[in-house]
Amino acid sequence: MYTRRHSIWPTLPPNVYLKRSTNWRPFPLDQTRCRIFSLARHAILNASKALHLGKGDVILVPAYHHGSEVEALMQAGLQVIYYEVNDELEPDSKELQTLLSPNVKALYIIHYLGFPQKASFWRQWCDERGLLLFEDAAQAFLAHHNGQPVGSFGHVGVFCLYKTYGIPDGGALISTIPPAAPQQNSGKGWWKVFKRHVNWIAARRGEIGAIHLLVKPIVSSFKRMTEHTHKEFEVGNPSTSPSTMTIRLLPKLLNKSTADRRRENYEFLLSHLGDMVPYPFSTLPEGACPFAFPVEVADAKEFLNRLHSRGVVGLLFWLNPHPSLLVADFPKSRDLREKMLALPVHQELTKADLKQIVKAVQECRIDSTARVATFS
User: Fold this and answer.
1) Are 106 and 192 part of one and the same domain?
2) Sign (positive/negative) of CA torsion 302, 305, 311, 315?
3) CA dist list (Å): 211 to 1, 6, 203, 257, 354
4) Which of 102, 164, 316, 326 is 20 to 30 A from 257, comparing alpha carbons?
5) Cα–Cα distance, 255 to 14 (Å, whole number)
């Protein structure tokens, strides 16, 4: 029997072209100061320059990060000093205080997996010390904190629109001093749109899903052989606008129900897999708009492979940090990278899809227990 395939990334229904564009514009798309670049890393670099940050200035950044944001900050001329996250994935104010110096100009926080940080607290903390606050809401578009949109508390807020909707690209920026709008066109975006359509079909047709599950590892292996180690952190041209297809499709995809659908999917998975979820994500706070569903396992890479064979394409979340990070100095962040998997939770998933994900995880968990018993 063929297996349907489900990925973290939101799929793109083929009927999207028949939909009418909505007039609804969630934050920050409803703001005149909003700028949309091809990628969030472009937004970060441009915001840094617009705020006159550069050589000699220091920004405090979490050790648990993707890496592209760090590269963008460095290319803007900033020096990065890392801090460790606490059990709630927040900064520790006492540790931050020890890192302060006259050269520290900004604090960078990340709203992990669409779960809001205590942004109002950190804005006040920064204001009291004369610092700028960068809010990385790349995974938290449509999320809220204290009834206010995530990304609206800081001097800078950045969002990855394509992590919420099945569009090719789109990095939105809101900044107290907005930079110039991007000038370089990133192209049509047809290939990425095609892949998102294929993902949608693979999630509904087992035979297509089976082909996808067979071909994807080959393509990924080829890319690892032909691309250098740190390609995923490359910034590219920071003045690149979103693709033509992103601009065309986004107004058709924006929907007030998106956050609710993601929350419902998260709650369903939580009700079945809650004992595997790491503490910061074990309950769904008000205002969260989940990007993915996290589970913590000891044999993460092997667990991913077993999930893949069952049609669930997870992600070992942020396995590779920026090369400037001394990994051994930040053990909590290292453990998160090595043990936390991210599973699909996006709004295109059906109840049947969610049940398939639950079943796959439970079967893989049994396999893991059996393997441990065999070798013990």
Assistant:
1) no
2) positive
3) 13, 13, 12, 32, 21
4) 316
5) 17
The answer to whether residues 202 and 60 belong to one domain is no
- Digit-coded pLDDT (tens) for 38-83: 999 999 999 999 999 999 999 999 999 999 999 999 999 999 999 9
Which residues, 6+ apart, have CB-to-CB distance to 369 below 8 Å? none
Burial per residue of 89-114, b for 16 or more beta-carbon CB atoms within 10 angstroms, e otherwise: bbbeeeebeeeeeeebbbbbbbbbbb
Q: How far apart are alpha carbons 239 and 194 in whole angstroms?
A: 25
Burial label, 220 (beta-carbon count in 10 A; 0-12, 13-18, 19+): exposed
Give me the domain span that covers residue 203: 6-12+188-231+256-375
Structural domains counted in the chain: 2
pLDDT in tens, 2-33: 688 999 999 999 999 999 999 999 999 999 99
| Whole-model pTM over 0.85 | yes
CA distance 343 to 358: 10
The Cα–Cα gap between 330 and 83 comes to 8
CATH, residue 370? 3.90.1150.10
Domain identity same for 35 and 169: yes
Contact between 213 and 308 under an 8 Å Cβ cutoff? The reply is yes
Contacts for 316 with CB less than 8 Å, ≥ 6 apart: 300, 301, 304, 337, 338, 340, 341, 342
Residues 317 and 355 occupy one common structural domain:
yes
Is residue 249 domain-resident? no
Strands 58-62 and 340-343: unpaired
